[in-house]
Structure formats: C-alpha cells, structure tokens
Known about the structure:
By secondary structure, this protein is of the alpha/beta class. It has ten helices and 13 strands. It has a single domain (about 5-295), classed as NAD(P)-binding Rossmann-like Domain (Rossmann fold, 3-Layer(aba) Sandwich), CATH 3.40.50.720.
Amino acid sequence: MTGGTGFVGGATIDVALGLGHQVRALTRRPQPAREGVTWIEGTLDDVAGLTRLCEGADCVLHIAGVVNAPDRAGFVAGNITGTENMLAAAKAAGVARFVHVSSLAAREPALSNYCWSKAEAETRVTASGLDWLMVRPPAVYGPGDTEMLDLFRMAARGVVMLPPGGRMSVVHVADLARLLVRLAAGSGDPQAIYEVDDGMASGWSHAAFADALGDAVGRKVRSFSTPKFALHLAARGDRLLRGKTAKLTPDRARYIAHSDWTADPHKQPSTQLWQAEIPTRQGLAETARWYRAQGWLKA
C-alpha cells in the first residue's frame, strides 16, 4: 500500500487489519510498530523501496497522490511518475492485481493540472497489462481529514463561503476504505472504474451541504456562492501571501469552480459489492465531534 500514513490510507489500514489482512505500507519516515503492518521506508521515486514494498504481496493498493502543488511538475511527479513507478514495481514483483485510487477530477483533464495529472495516471494504469481496478472518490470526509476542516470552521462561525453554484458528491472515509479493502482482497470486476458516493441521489447542492455542515456543528449557517472571478482573485492573493505553500492555488480554484463533481450512477459498484453505510449527516456530526476533541474546532 502507498499512502498508508495519510487520511484515506490510515483508514484503509484499520479496515484491512480488522478483517485479518497483513499490510505492507510505504512510509517516508519511521512509524510506530503496529501488529499486522510492515512499514517499508521509501518514496514513490525510490525504486528499491517500491520493490521491497511489493515483495510477496497479493495486491498493490496505490492510494498516494498529490492534490495540491505549486506547478505542473509537482503533479507530474506525485501523480504520473509515482503511478508509473508503482506499476513497474508491481510487475517486477509479479503482483498482478493493482487497485488504483484516482479521482472524479480525471473526468475533466482540460480543467486543471491536477485533473490532467489524474487522467494521465489512469492511462498508465489501463495500459499496464495488469489486473487493474480503479476507484474515483468524490470529496472524502471523516475524522482526521484536513481538506474539509476549513468548511467546518466556517460553519462554526455561522457563514460558509461556497464555490459557484453546482453539485457535489461526498463519501465517508470509512466507507471508502471498506471498498478499497474489498477490491484488494479480490472482489470487483477486472478493468472496472468505480465512482462512489454516500448514496445521495444526484449528490448535494453546495447550499444543502453547507446546511448539513451547520447541523453538524450546531449552528444555523448563512451560505454565499463565490463568483469564479473572486475565487481566482483569492487564489492569486494566497499565492502572493504564502508562495509555494499556498493552499488555494489558481489550479485548485479552477477545480473548485467546476459545477459537477457528482459520482456517475452508471459507474457505481453493485450493491452486492459495496454500498455506503454511514449517512452523511451522521458522519459530519461525528467528524465535528472528533475535530473538537482534538482542539481543531472551537466549541
């Protein structure tokens, strides 16, 4: 597994261990010992480390990726070259099954560098000759997530600034992890691309999701849609203020401003294979409680 020290990867390790699997996980730095987990030090550009990672594995689960980078080269290194290296390591180790975590962003390669890099990574997987499967998650939330934390903080203040009008799908990290482990263990249709969500038909409008966030933190919220030009101005401002560490980059602004990040119902897994178990309003409330317990969100 790659990405095992991250948000989705950590949840996936928890599910895998709970089902009795043994996990070999890549890490950049030493990790605490954990029964059932063999930590392999290395990076996605470390051929020797990736070879060690794949030795004796039944499946490669490639979760690691870059969601934000200061330039195109950062997305190439994290999402394209990293995937190529993992595919080569799987082949060298004789691991036939490859589960790749992509993104809904791959559907819109012309939209941003991030979207383009996820689409290019998918082309590497589909051309690999391996027994591959792909999952394109929507927005993933749950305890431990940092990407959606700012939205929770805005909701706690009673005002949520939203992207331009549109719709989105979400999924709880534990539900996503259950699917990834199931696919890694041999379920699913070979060469399938799955898009998953929380079971909300047609996804959530941005305004409705803001209301759900308000309920989760116990506040009545007012939400405002940010025009595209204002979003791009904010991205330029963040770049001026924080340089390469900017979180709202122009690339990310183009991604956020897209009007349809809902899962395709025709690409949903069959209900026999998987379906979401955690209602989103319940999951958001549990996530808010976790943030508060950690001191990430003020009461």
